[in-house]
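Researcher: Structure prediction, please.
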Amino acid sequence: MSASKRLTKKQTAVMEDLFAGELNESAILRKHEVKPREYERWLANERFAEQLEQRIAAALRRGRMTLARNASNAATKLIELTRSDKGETARKACLDILGLQDAGLNLAESTDSGRSSALPAPRCLSPEAASRLLAALAKDDSQ
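Model: Predicted structure follows.
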């Protein structure tokens, strides 16, 4: 890679800080004495934009991996919360369980490459079925 295609030390430092998560974008630019107009030129620069997109993709991938690793524990905890003595807690846990599909957090979604996973897509619940499920999950164990 030629020197002209490499990021400058300042660009690299700014990019490192952008992904460190300690400061917001404006504070980072001030810290490195980068004017907004100069930063806009960097964003229009193919090499800088490519590096930025690669970092974003890597960060998103790490986030998805963290979610995948913890999905089972989270689901178990939500199920436990549906049995809570506190009605509002149980109700919210039920709603969260039902909302997981709507939020796109199911494992049957498409993968990054655009291919569908081998898992069948879950069926959507009708409002009536959702109400019955909520009632059953929130039902007091003492009855």
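Model: The CA atoms of residues 35 and 76 lie 49 Å apart.
Researcher: Thanks, that helps.
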